[in-house]
Design goal:
Oligomer: single chain
Strand content: 35-45%
Number of strands: 6
Order of helices and strands: EEEHEEHHE
Distance between the termini: 40 Å
Helix content: 25-40%
Shape: elongated
Length: 140
């Protein structure tokens, strides 16, 4: 895996993944940015949410669950000072579908957190406390 990050101006950067996709990152005005894109630490948080959601949807589909939507709401705390790494992150999954079994959703969340989500496992190994919960929304 590889990526390239290029400075644009101020604290704005364009990142290109090895697969050819790009994202823009920027900072707030008090740090020299123009507040035109997500912050780099927000990108890490969003990546964690994407990684975990990818796993959960895949696991539920393999379990023949009729999942129609999955959303994760992440809340993070950071250390004071510089650097200010994440110290705690809570992931709340809202999984929608027809006749979803809560035990299957719980299993998928657990498997993602403990076995499959590389981002979760990496952050926990770095000392970040991760917690998870979920809700199931019934749709026809």
């Amino acid at each position: 895996m590889q990526a390239t990050v290029k400075w644009v101006d101020g604290v704005m950067f364009i990142a290109e993944s090895g697969s050819g996709h790009t994202v823009v990152m920027d900072g707030p005005p008090d740090h020299g940015g123009r507040d035109m894109a997500a912050r780099p630490m927000e990108m890490i948080l969003m990546g964690l949410g994407g990684c975990a959601s990818f796993d959960i949807v895949s696991i539920l589909k393999k379990s023949r669950q009729k999942v129609s939507a999955c959303r994760v709401e992440l809340q993070a705390e950071r250390a004071q000072g510089t650097p200010s790494p994440f110290t705690k992150i809570h992931l709340h999954f809202v999984v929608s579908g027809a006749a979803l079994k809560p035990i299957q959703v719980e299993r998928a969340v657990s498997l993602s957190a403990t076995k499959y989500c590389s981002a979760s496992i990496m952050l926990e190994a770095a000392g970040v406390t991760l917690t998870h919960d979920f809700e199931v929304v019934e749709v026809d």
